[in-house]
Amino acid sequence: MANKKPAVEYAERESLDSELSAAIEHILSAEAEARRIIAQAEMSVKAIQLDAATRERDLKSNAVGEAAIAKDKAIADAAARAEAECERMRSDAEKRGEQIVEANRKNIDKLATELLKSL
User: Which residue of 8, 12, 42, 65 lies most exposed, with the fewest beta carbons within 10 A?
Assistant: First the structure.
């Protein structure tokens, strides 16, 4: 016996065409929805990138401002310490100068007394 395949029955062409059209419309609709979702996602990404760039710029700006304030404070503190050190050194120098003048005055008085005695 020969193997006989059953005959294939096809549905009506109009029915198949309408199913194919419905499937194509469904695919095109899904593609359009996917494009819309992708476009919306791209806009969201751009908005997030812009926000991140703005925040980064603000943080850098604030950091520069804070660094400038800290630098100014450090300079003012250093100037105050330097002024205090200068004042202390000036005071020490004046005291030493007065001691030297006093010692020289005593030596001069002593030498003048000796000179007067020798005359």
Answer: 8
Residue 5: helix, strand or coil by DSSP?
A: coil
Neighbours of 37 (CB within 10 A): 10
**Sequence-ordered list of residues with C-beta below 8 angstroms from that of 10, at least 6 positions apart, any chain:** 16
* 105/22 Cα distance (integer angstroms): 122
Q: How far apart are the first and last CA of the chain?
A: 169
Q: In sequence order, which residues have a C-beta less than 8 Å from that of residue 16 and are 6 or more positions away?
A: 10
For 17-33, write each residue's pLDDT tens digit. 888 999 999 999 999 99
47: left (phi over 0), alpha (psi -120 to 50) or beta: alpha
Q: How many CA atoms lie within 13 A of 36 on its CB side?
A: 6
Token pair, residue 75, equals 């300079």
pLDDT digits (tens, 9 = 90+) for 30-76: 999 999 999 999 999 999 999 999 999 999 999 999 999 999 999 99
